[in-house]
Specification:
mainly alpha
């Protein structure tokens, strides 16, 4: 059973005296009211408040993809069958729900992300109460709220990893119930599987949560019963996960999208995670860790100190549990090899929990006992929060939404996409198709224009895939039949990588040159901001041109 710390300190009770559940058992529901309920609501309010100033920040590439597919689902279209994507459909459904809200769609999308972030922080508080008193449990929840909004992890975006946090943390809460004795443990085992399956609905690596639950389950079983209870838990939780994914598979079978579903979320990704060399993986890792170091280094130090003190005090299960959770997240971050900053969201819940445990251990250390208890707590809490809060502050109080998105994504023109989309909507009709030779589906979503290709993001066509030429050829045929009225040219570096198929690149250059003319140029000088300017007929493109909005030439 997981140790529950009494309200006044950090000393674990004997195993026989501990409650096996995080939420109170029947007859003890009052334990959730009073101060714990106030803290829970306060954590939700603070987390939502941190995100409120940037709810209108422009969408990034991934958000644009989810928003576009969510929009098209309201037109009775399906991901995989009608629009190609390599992620499970959880984010599409969340975005579809957000777009149904009676407000600006960008606000609605980010409000949904803020709600998930707040509930995740609150859920971590409930979980942390199994280890810590209410003060340090609240610090863990608040720290997750701050870290998940950190621009260094692209925290302003409503990404799959942000959504995945909530079911993963809830599954840890359900695990506590599943380790207890009684008839209900099977129900909680099934719930663990359902929640792990729900995590995998947002990203395939969410399936690692089920493996984590099975691995840590024996730690809380009595000797002599571990194998039997663990096998029972694994079976019942697997049944819960199978219920989620079995229902999903039936849905796509009934909608004639089974083959596309399996190919895109399973087969393609199995090939995708092997495309990078070890040297490339290391380079991506070093680049991202260098960005995260500034705001997270002290947090990791607190977590390491806490781990050392737990081992010194004989709290091996506590140490092993959090370490295994971190390792599970680390595997998920590492699988693709790209180490995008938002991947690191899966590490934030165990990191926040471990850091709060470390601060709690330092607060009760013998060397610090001469200081007043409130002073120790305040000083350590301030040390935990100082750098993340300083990093986040200018985004909350100084930068506009456009300035913020430029700071977070200095090499992407996300701030310019709404303006280009307005122009795209002016030069095309609602039923016109648009070909994007690049990776900017947010342009289609802003303008509410339909892609000329099922691939709303093209990079998945470029790589060491056996069927690359076949698929690129099929896309060129599809675009020709769609007869797009406009196009947007902003090629990705993958389109020119040596030793991979470039049929679509060569075809697109020829197709765009013959059939389209520039309407707006997207320029950039050095590392400065992107600029948009009109493109006069017959005028040569400026030397700083990196992209352009194109309209179809009038027939001769």
């Amino acid at each position: 059973m997981l140790d529950r710390v009494p309200a006044g300190g950090n000393v674990s009770l004997p195993m026989s005296q501990n409650d096996a559940s995080c939420l109170p058992a029947p007859g003890r529901m009052s334990a959730l009211f009073g101060r714990p309920l106030f803290l829970f609501l306060a954590i939700l309010a603070v987390t939502m408040s941190l995100r409120a100033p940037l709810l209108d920040i422009p969408l990034d590439r991934d958000e644009g993809e989810y928003a576009y597919i969510g929009w098209r689902m309201d037109q009775h279209e399906l991901p995989y069958r009608d629009w190609v994507d390599q992620k499970p459909p959880g984010a599409f459904w969340v975005y579809r729900l957000a777009l149904a809200l009676p407000m600006d769609p960008i606000l609605a999308i980010h409000l949904m992300g803020a709600l998930f972030a707040a509930l995740s922080a609150g859920a971590l508080f409930l979980l942390a109460r199994r280890y810590l008193d209410d003060y340090w449990a609240a610090v863990a929840g608040l720290l997750l709220g701050v870290l998940s909004a950190d621009p260094a992890v692209q925290g302003t975006a409503a990404n799959t990893e942000l959504f995945m946090q909530l079911p993963i943390i809830l599954s840890q809460l359900a695990l506590i119930r599943a380790t207890a004795s009684g008839a209900r443990r099977r129900r909680y085992a099934i719930l663990c599987g359902v929640l792990a399956g729900a995590a995998a609905l947002f990203k395939q690596v969410g399936a690692l949560d089920w493996l984590l639950l099975v691995v840590v389950f024996p730690m809380w079983c009595e000797k002599g019963q571990r194998l039997r209870k663990t096998l029972s838990f694994a079976a019942w939780s697997a049944a819960g996960a199978a219920a989620v994914w079995g229902s999903l598979m039936i849905y796509f079978v009934l909608n004639h999208a089974w083959n596309d579903f399996i190919y895109n979320i399973l087969y393609h990704n199995l090939v995708y995670i092997h495309t990078l060399s070890p040297a490339d993986r290391l380079a991506h890792f070093q680049d991202t860790v260098a960005k995260l170091f500034k705001s997270q280094a002290l947090i990791w130090l607190f977590a390491a100190i806490g781990g050392g003190m737990w081992l010194k005090r004989g709290q091996k299960k506590r140490f092993a549990y959090v370490l295994l959770w971190m390792l599970s997240g680390a595997v998920g971050v590492n699988l693709s090899g790209y180490f995008y900053p938002h991947y690191f969201h899966v590490l934030l819940p165990p990191l926040a929990l471990a850091a709060a445990m470390g601060a709690s251990a330092l607060a009760s250390a013998g060397a610090a006992e001469a200081a007043q208890g409130w002073f120790r707590r305040a000083a350590l809490t301030g040390a935990l929060a100082l750098i993340p809060v300083m990093t986040l502050s200018p985004f909350l109080f100084s930068y506009t939404a456009s300035e913020a998105v430029r700071r977070i994504y200095p090499n992407d023109p996300y701030a310019e996409m709404p303006s280009l989309a307005r122009r795209l909507a002016e030069v095309t009709g609602p039923q016109d198709r648009v070909y994007i030779f690049g990776s900017e589906p947010e342009l289609l979503f802003y303008a509410r224009r339909i892609s000329a290709a099922r691939y709303v993001i093209l990079p998945s066509l470029f790589g060491p895939y056996a069927d690359s030429q076949e698929k690129q050829t099929a896309v060129s045929v599809e675009i020709t039949k769609a007869h797009p009225a406009a196009a947007f040219y902003l090629p990705n570096g993958l389109f020119f990588t040596p030793h991979i198929e470039h049929y679509l690149t060569d075809w697109s250059f020829d197709y765009l040159h013959r059939n389209f003319q520039a309407d707006r140029w997207l320029g950039r000088t050095g590392a400065g901001p992107f600029t948009i300017c009109p493109a006069p007929k017959s005028a040569p493109a400026p030397t700083n041109m990196v992209g352009e909005l194109l309209v179809r030439k009038a027939p001769l």
